[in-house]
Amino acid sequence: MHAMQYELTLPADHDMGIIRARVARVGHLLDTWDGLGTKAYLLRERGRHGSRVNQYAPFYLWDTVEGMNAFLFGGAFQGLANDFGRPDVRQWTGLAYEEGSAPRSATAFAVRHRQPVPQRELAEWAADAVAETRRLAGLDGAVLAAAAVDTRAWELVHFSLWETFAEGDAPKAEGDVFEVLHLSAPGAAGLRRGRQW
User: What Pfam families does the annotation carry (predicted)?
Assistant: First the structure.
């Protein structure tokens, strides 16, 4: 599994309806993409769920490098780059993946938590990251949870999808909260569960 994300931070007065309309128009195009486990079309709006920014930030869990590369270099990504400029694309190597009990069709929110990998025994640290993924997936309302690491920057990302929760409620995971506008999950059933080594 490979995780990938890019972020388009937009002006504070940007009409986020433009992004919603774009996703409604093109979101289905990856619903059958070879090598894609899951793509969550993510949106943060300034002043909602603790966000200080307007941001479009899709998050991908790839089952194959070939699928990811076909997306980036085969033309699909070029449309976004043409419209918004080419964003930096973060990539992380998968550590763990677990399915929750909530159905994918109920997905409404995502939580992304990035943190530095501490100076400690890596095997012990990785085991803790796997255990946290399992814990998140086991919570009520969880659709899925994943953990991945960027070994260049030594950054861990925990990513989870959730059923809806009320505006005033806190999510059950720590991190940045995003609204999920669309979920493409052509290969979600093929993502290997558990520890990724």
Answer: DUF4865
